[in-house]
Backbone:
């Protein structure tokens, strides 16, 4: 057999057949080449596209952990609400962008169609609230207060409501147990933004589109712990989205609970009494400004003296944290952030700073002792002290003669400290500091932790400032240009000051130094700093980082991570000096400037220590400070533009102690009424099913006793000299302070007014 | 010439046992073209597996039986194989006499499609539903009858020794013969099949030795026709979209470009060795439409990778290469023309089908020979294999 054709084939056909064969094989070659290109060269890219094609994630959001008080009472937890949401993506698919559906929905929900439409529009620079500032791909909540009936209507007629869902959802609730509010400490949540999602994409705790993120307070500080981990189930799906298999399933992990050292009952008392004190203060007349005290802001911190744990922390003005839940309304947002709001979102206990006034004297005393002045020496408490013809008057121009440093604290004698500070200033070289200048008054303040954050577990704490030589230099550099431009020799008062500052604002003048020694002038402190310092005096000298969080307990209660008290230093004084100061502070209560406020206090059973402070603020009314402690607790209260320390804050602080220890106004101790006679040691028990055995809370009933009855009951009239501080008798204090203000004209000058809490 | 045929004459030569007859040098079995046969069988069985993979989870079309399409594909292959044997048995020359009848029958069937008996599938009104899940696509058979009919006309005078090449009149007659069913198929409209027929006509004319003028004339007419069709708006929107999606692969991946996009993803994701049979996410997830028929190649691409998909191209290459040999080696023009028509048919249809899944050709509803699911197509290609075998077996033996 042979393949040679029998007959002659015409060459034309033969050639054409070869052409066909070449053509055919080259077509196949083309296919092979293209196949190689797609599968081998570009294969990886297509494989990626294919996996994106067929895997769908279904996310089960984790339940956010609760924030509990020291005994387990939830102060922030979750409640189930029926949330009606609209999917923008679905709505935009409709011809009218979902307008008809939203109008129908408004009818069911009993809302105005306009309101519903406003809620689903996206926020941008031009769009006012209400608008949605979360991810546009996430269902936008229209209301979280739908009734079961409304939800049923929507779900049963789902074909009438495309893109609308009505689902029960866990929504944050700030329970406010016992009437407490704790707003600024708790903080609030708001929806995660697109940027945050992108930023956290590759970290170990990525955000979901539906996530709420803690924006301030504990919610922010402990966001990672509270948030938990969302469950993600990756389904393999077909082209219609039907599930054809499960690729991976990570069940949701509920967020951990945060046990705080806050006691909701004490918190309530603190809030109530702070507010009440401010209300009372507003009734008082300020002779300096010829109007009633404004008492526009205040803060109080109740701290465990031996650990730095915060038992209560209140800031006023305040707000309802639930306003943020389910998206904040335009009205509420304006109320919280507007110019006239006085910024209730600020936590003034850690973010408000003011000159401390006389409560600073414990630091000045320590500085003096460290500089070599014996505590029990004799120091002239004259009625005034003059430096180069400039007269610095004592408080109310009263002289006590030669007294010890302890007595100077008790009666809050300014001239003793003026003299010491002036002495030191001169020793350090005065305007031209020595190379080895000790700057005792300033270094001691730094060693007490001033001018630096305390490290409390709350975000955005401010540091205050110690106006030492370095600060003066820096501040002058920063402001020189504007001072020199504005300043004018022989111009108005403000212009003269600016002129002087321009020339020598970098120099530490004698006046600055003596003024500083009594906590006036440029120094700024926060209530939490002072609470930390007075706690340290109480506990033997340890400066603890204040903490609100006490333990992070897993949702099933099995893993408990205790947040241990941490110290950031020791007071820079000897045990003996500490004891001396402790004694003097007790003297303040028994025979000093706060004695009239603690008449009838069971001092033998619960030794009370206190220091009053009244800080002057350029262009404003005085700041009231009151720093106190027992062996277990420290309470520091401040009221901006509130008047004097013992006058405005005194009664409120006493009432908080009365509530803590169960002391009645007449001084009897009823342990059954005591809210927390000793700090809470044990942690609340969280069961494995997540339930918490929390005690019931009775609302706080403030004692009926007014100031008058208190005084009568105490059987002791306030000392005449100090009584003039009282809000009711402010008139007599006017002259004294007025005089002092004039006397100190030079030193309080400058545009650098201290901001108040 | 007919005297050289030893196949149909029994008892010619010494008596032999059936086994030795089968194995004898000049036996039918020995003279069959085994590479074509084995390649065609391999393609059909690969097709069976791929069709099974594509349809086992498509519950909305497989009547709840995951083997529904597998069994039918194997049945079709079996029937096709029998048709091939029958074709070889009859021989292409015997069939030559029946060509007018077959041609008439096929034209009648495509006419039936245009009546209410016809059914529309995927925009093409090309089907006759027989009931019981069976349907017929007569345009597949027309491809064969056009080849046979044209070959008969064109080769008649040449094989008789009258002429070296078919004259103009014969060519015109042959074109007319092809034009009638093509017009009807165009009316369905089944443009894909028309395109295949145009290529078949081209192949047939080339192999017939018709004047170059006819070849270029035909090419020109084809081009002009394409422009006319486009300009006159005869095309349906879906057909225009297919071209648009081809011209711009990024176009509307969820709409017009969906098929091609998903097909490319499926094939591309296969890589060298594929995801493994039944493990392709694109296939299991039914992302590629029409995957058991027109887009069956994507299953191979995804699950068997470059190795498996390349094997399909290679096997098709073997069939076409052997067919080219058959075309060249047979001495009678009739056989050459038939073989060339089949080559043109298989080559273009394979190139178009695979090419569209690879994104180098616009989408057209054409099955991949042997591999795609579909009875009519399967029967037609196996008959074509039978014709090729017959041409080889019956070719004039030397000496």
Residues:
């Amino acid at each position: 057999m042979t393949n040679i054709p029998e007959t002659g084939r015409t060459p034309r056909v033969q050639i054409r057949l070869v052409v066909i064969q070449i053509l055919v094989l080259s077509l196949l070659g083309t296919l092979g080449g293209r196949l190689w290109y797609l599968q081998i060269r570009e294969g990886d890219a297509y494989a990626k596209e294919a996996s994106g094609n067929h895997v769908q994630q279904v996310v089960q959001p984790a339940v956010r952990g609760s924030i509990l008080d020291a005994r387990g009472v939830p102060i922030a937890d979750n409640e189930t609400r029926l949330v009606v949401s609209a999917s923008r993506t679905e709505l935009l698919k409709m011809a009218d962008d979902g307008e008809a559906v939203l109008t129908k929905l408004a009818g069911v929900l009993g809302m105005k169609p306009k309101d519903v439409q406003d809620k689903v529009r996206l926020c941008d620079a031009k769009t006012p609230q209400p608008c949605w500032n979360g991810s546009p791909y996430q269902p936008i909540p229209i209301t979280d207060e739908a009734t079961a009936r409304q939800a049923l209507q929507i779900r049963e007629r789902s074909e009438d409501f495309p893109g609308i869902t009505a689902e029960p959802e866990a929504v944050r609730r700030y329970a406010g147990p016992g009437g407490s509010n704790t707003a600024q400490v708790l903080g609030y949540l708001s929806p995660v933004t697109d940027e945050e999602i992108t930023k956290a994409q590759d970290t170990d705790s990525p955000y979901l589109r539906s996530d709420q993120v803690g924006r301030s307070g504990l919610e922010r500080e402990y966001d990672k712990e509270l948030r938990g981990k969302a469950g993600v189930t990756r389904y393999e799906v077909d082209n219609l989205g039907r599930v054809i298999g499960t690729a991976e399933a990570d069940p949701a992990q509920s967020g951990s609970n945060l046990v705080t050292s806050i006691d909701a009952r004490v918190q309530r008392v603190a809030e109530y009494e702070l507010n009440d004190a401010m209300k009372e203060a507003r009734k008082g007349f300020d002779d300096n400004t010829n109007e009633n005290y404004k008492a526009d802001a205040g803060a109080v911190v109740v701290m465990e003296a031996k650990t730095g744990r915060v038992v209560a922390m209140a800031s006023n003005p305040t707000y309802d944290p639930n306003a943020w839940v389910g998206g904040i309304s335009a009205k509420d947002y304006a109320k919280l952030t507007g110019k006239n709001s006085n910024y209730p979102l600020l936590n003034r206990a850690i973010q408000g700073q003011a000159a401390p006034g006389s409560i600073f004297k414990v630091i000045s005393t320590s500085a003096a002792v460290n500089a070599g002045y014996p505590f029990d020496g004799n120091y002239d408490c004259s009625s005034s002290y003059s430096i180069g013809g400039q007269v610095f008057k004592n408080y109310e121009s009263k002289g006590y003669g030669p007294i010890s440093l302890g007595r100077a604290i008790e009666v809050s004698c300014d001239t003793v400290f003026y003299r010491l500070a002036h002495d030191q200033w001169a020793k350090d070289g005065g305007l031209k500091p020595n190379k080895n200048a000790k700057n005792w008054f300033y270094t001691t303040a730094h060693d007490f932790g001033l001018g630096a954050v305390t490290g409390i577990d709350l975000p955005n704490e401010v540091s205050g400032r110690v106006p030492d030589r370095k600060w003066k230099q820096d501040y002058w550099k920063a402001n020189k240009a504007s001072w020199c431009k504005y300043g004018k020799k022989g111009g108005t008062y403000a212009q003269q000051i600016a002129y002087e500052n321009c020339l020598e604002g970098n120099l530490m003048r004698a006046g600055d130094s003596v003024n500083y020694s009594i906590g006036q002038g440029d120094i700024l402190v926060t209530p939490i700093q002072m609470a930390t310092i007075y706690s340290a005096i109480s506990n033997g000298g340890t400066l603890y980082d204040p903490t609100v969080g006490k333990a992070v307990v897993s949702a099933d209660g099995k893993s408990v991570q205790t947040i241990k008290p941490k110290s950031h230093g020791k007071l820079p004084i000897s045990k003996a000096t500490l004891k001396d100061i402790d004694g003097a502070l007790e003297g303040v209560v028994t025979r000093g400037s706060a004695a009239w406020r603690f008449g009838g206090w069971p001092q033998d059973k619960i030794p009370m220590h206190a220091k009053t402070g009244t800080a002057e603020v350029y262009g404003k009314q005085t700041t009231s400070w009151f720093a106190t402690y027992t062996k277990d607790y420290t309470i520091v209260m401040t009221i901006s533009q509130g008047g004097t320390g013992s006058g405005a804050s005194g009664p409120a602080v006493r009432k908080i102690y009365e509530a803590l220890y169960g002391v009645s106004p007449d001084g009897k101790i009823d342990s059954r009424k005591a809210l927390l006679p000793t700090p809470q040691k044990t942690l609340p028990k969280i069961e494995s099913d997540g339930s918490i055995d929390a005690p019931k809370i009775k609302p706080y009933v403030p004692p009926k006793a007014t100031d008058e009855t208190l005084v009568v009951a105490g059987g002791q009239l306030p000392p005449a000299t100090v009584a003039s501080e009282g809000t009711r008798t402010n008139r007599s204090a006017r002259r004294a302070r007025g005089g002092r203000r004039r006397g100190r004209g030079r030193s309080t000058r400058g545009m650098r007014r201290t901001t108040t809490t | 010439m007919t005297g050289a045929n030893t196949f149909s004459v029994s008892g010619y030569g010494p008596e032999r046992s059936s086994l030795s007859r089968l194995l004898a040098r000049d036996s039918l079995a020995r003279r069959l073209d085994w590479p074509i046969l084995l390649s065609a069988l391999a393609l059909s069985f690969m097709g069976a597996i791929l069709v099974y993979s594509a349809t086992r989870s498509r519950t909305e079309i497989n009547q709840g039986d995951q083997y529904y399409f597998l069994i039918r594909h194997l049945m079709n292959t079996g029937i096709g194989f029998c048709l091939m044997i029958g074709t070889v048995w009859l021989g292409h020359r015997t069939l030559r006499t029946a060509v007018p009848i077959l041609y008439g029958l096929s034209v009648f069937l495509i006419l039936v499609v245009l009546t209410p008996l016809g059914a529309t599938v995927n925009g093409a009104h090309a089907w006759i539903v027989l009931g019981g899940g069976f349907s017929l696509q007569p345009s597949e058979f027309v491809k064969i009858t056009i080849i046979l009919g044209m070959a008969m006309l064109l080769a008649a005078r040449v094989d008789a020794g009258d002429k070296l090449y078919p004259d103009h009149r014969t060519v015109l007659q042959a074109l007319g013969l092809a034009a009638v069913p093509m017009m009807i198929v165009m009316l369905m409209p089944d443009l894909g099949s028309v395109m295949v027929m145009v290529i078949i006509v081209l192949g047939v004319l080339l192999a017939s030795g018709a004047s170059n003028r006819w070849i270029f004339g035909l090419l020109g007419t084809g081009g002009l026709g394409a422009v006319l069709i486009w300009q006159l708006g005869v095309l349906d929107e879906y057909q225009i979209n297919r071209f648009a999606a081809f011209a711009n692969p990024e176009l509307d991946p969820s709409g017009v470009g969906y098929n091609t996009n998903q097909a490319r993803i499926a094939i591309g994701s296969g890589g060298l060795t594929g995801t493994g049979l039944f493990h392709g996410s694109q296939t299991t997830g039914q992302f590629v439409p029409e995957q058991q028929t027109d887009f069956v190649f994507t299953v191979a691409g995804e699950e068997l990778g470059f190795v498996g998909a390349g094997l399909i191209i290679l096997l098709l290459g073997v069939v076409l290469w052997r067919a080219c040999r058959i075309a060249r080696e047979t001495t009678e023009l009739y056989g050459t023309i038939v073989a060339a028509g089949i080559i043109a048919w298989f080559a273009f249809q394979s190139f178009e089908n695979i090419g569209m899944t690879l994104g180098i050709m616009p989408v057209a509803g054409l099955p991949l020979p042997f591999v795609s699911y579909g009875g009519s197509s399967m029967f037609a290609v196996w008959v074509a294999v039978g014709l090729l075998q017959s041409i080889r077996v019956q070719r004039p033996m030397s000496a």
About this structure: Strands of chain B lie at 118-121, 124-131, 134-136. Chain B touches chain A through 61 residues (CB under 8 Å).
